[in-house]
TrEMBL record:
Methylates the class 1 translation termination release factors RF1/PrfA and RF2/PrfB on the glutamine residue of the universally conserved GGQ motif. It comes from Stutzerimonas stutzeri (Pseudomonas stutzeri). Belongs to the protein N5-glutamine methyltransferase family. PrmC subfamily. Keywords: Methyltransferase, S-adenosyl-L-methionine, Transferase. CDD domains: AdoMet_MTases (cd02440). PANTHER family: HEMK METHYLTRANSFERASE (PTHR18895), MTRF1L RELEASE FACTOR GLUTAMINE METHYLTRANSFERASE (PTHR18895:SF74). This is Release factor glutamine methyltransferase. Its EC number is 2.1.1.297. Residues 112-183 form the Methyltransferase domain. It catalyses: L-glutaminyl-[peptide chain release factor] + S-adenosyl-L-methionine = N(5)-methyl-L-glutaminyl-[peptide chain release factor] + S-adenosyl-L-homocysteine + H(+). S-adenosyl-L-methionine binds at residues 116-120, 139, 167, 183. GO terms for molecular function: nucleic acid binding; peptide chain release factor N(5)-glutamine methyltransferase activity. GO terms for biological process: methylation. Substrate binds at residues 183-186.
Amino acid sequence: MATIESLLRAAVLPDSPSAKLDAEWLLAAALGKPASYLRTWPEREVPAECEARFAADLARRRRGEPVAYILGYQGFWSLEFEVAPHTLIPRPDTELLVETALQLLPPIPADILDLGTGTGAIALALAHERPAWQVTGVDRVAETVELAARNAQRLRLDNAVFCESRWFSALDGQRFFSLIVSNPPYIPAHDPHLQEGDVRFEPSSALMAGDDGLDDIRQIIASAPSHLLDQGWLLLEHGYDQAPAVRALLVERGFIEVQSRRDFGGHERISLGRRP
């Protein structure tokens, strides 16, 4: 019977900075143990059924399937989220959106909107950090809305609700949000990166936004003032080179205090503005 150490040593994955970590996550999941167990007990023998699952999951990863889809979950902020192939996988860079939102408003009652909520990661991170906020997450895909609601239920966050809506389509006449936040599609349709890495397996509708990647951002910026309270904020994640264009769109629509914030890699990753 193979040991934890021997299985990890023999694991062959595509060369990448996360290859070793990917193998550890997959083996820990097969064993039903935390990753720390592998380092504590490397000499432990692995049951045959666990070894078989590990081998099957390694094969999926070798074909390029993201670890998050194989495991069915992904960490974001301080929480863990169920994920599925019809949702975008939450990424560390998006935590900047959460961090900035928490800085903009005090921890007092407020209504917050998350557009294109996906797994609900942004909405639920905000709901977790600000129990006084009422957070609404919308997504155009019904099964995605159901997944986000399951995440809310599992995390026991009752100050977040989710509904089906194509951006603001189900919110007509509702102008009461203190903050609107979104990580919309922003990759140009012909960007070669769409054929590389994990994004090959993610839903294209959550990634692509027209020839320049700004179609959805334009739509959100155009409609947001009708759903914001006076002095309310709009926060948008975008591509690493799109900040000047997004700031220009915000200014053109009449937003004030327009600015951008940099991610851990030094790129201007989000832009924001306030409704007068």
